[in-house]
Amino acid sequence: MQQVQRLHLNHVLQTVCALEAVVLRSFGPEGGQVLFTRDTGQAMLSRSGTRILTALRLEHPLARAVVECIRKHSGKTGDGSKSFMLLVASLLRAIHIAASKEPNVSHNYKSRAAAESATATRLADQMLGFALEKLEDLITVVVAPHGFCLLANDLSANALTDCDNVQKLLVSFFRTRLGCSHCDLMGELIRKLLTNWRCLTFLSLEFLNDNFPALHTAVLGFPVSCSRLVEGQVIHRDFATPHSNISHIPVKAVIFTIPLQPKLVYTEDVLELGKQTMEDHDRSILCFSSWAESSLECMFANLQTFGVSVLLSSVKQSDAVLALATQAEMCVVECISEDELALFIHLSGTTPVSDCQGIQPEHVASLTFCRPILLGAHRYVHVAFPESNDKMVQPSSVVICGLAVGQTDQYAGAIQDVIRMLCTTWEPLDAATRISVQPGPSPSSVLSGCVIPTGGTFEFLLHHALLQHGRTHTLSNPTDTGVPIVCQILAEALLCLPRHIYSDNPRRFLLVHTQVLKKLEDSHLEGLFCKPEFGKVQEEPSMYSSSSINFKTLSGLESVSCKYYLIMAVLQCVQSLLRVDTVLHVRSHLNPKPSKPTYSSDDED
Question: Residues 74, 31: one domain?
Answer without folding.
Answer: yes
